[in-house]
Write a structure and sequence with these properties.
- This protein is elongated.
- The relative contact order is 0.17.
- α3 packs antiparallel against α4.
- It is mainly α.
- The chain has a domain of 89 residues.
- It is built from six helices and two strands; from the N terminus they run αβαααααβ.
Amino acid sequence: MIREITVRTLDRDFGAEELRKLFADAGNPYALAGIRQEAGVYDDRGRESGDPVNVAEVAIVQEFGSLDGRIPSRPWVRNAWDANVDRYARQLGTELGKAIDGSQTVVDALDRVILRVEADQVDSLIALEDPPNAPSTLARKAPKTNPLVDSGQLLQSHDSAVLLEDGTPARPWRQGGS
């Protein structure tokens, strides 16, 4: 005896199609079809009139050290990444899962992760103690001893964003943006 069975399928897209489009660039597993996340210190923020360098240039020298060796490397950005990269991967999986189930957008998912990265960079900057400043710098900054905190410009210049394919931020930069 042959029976006829009718099957109805209901296909709901909870964000999987959006994710498929974003991961279309299979040649680069880190690219999300032009969407990228950035966290750090940017452009001319913090430049005082007459200053020869801007806060982003100061950040680069502090992170990697000066070419002449007078300023040692104080890698707060790399320290934050190294200490938390596994947590970022787990959070990204959780947040993208929420995008798939429709409770948030992919951009919101990425934004939540990059905000965590930014916060960890700031925490790392505040916690950094080694290598210490030179005795002359310590005397000038007293009573502050953190080698990366003096006026607060570097600390306050951190920002993050999810940038869309055309380079525009998905939400406004908090610090004025690049």
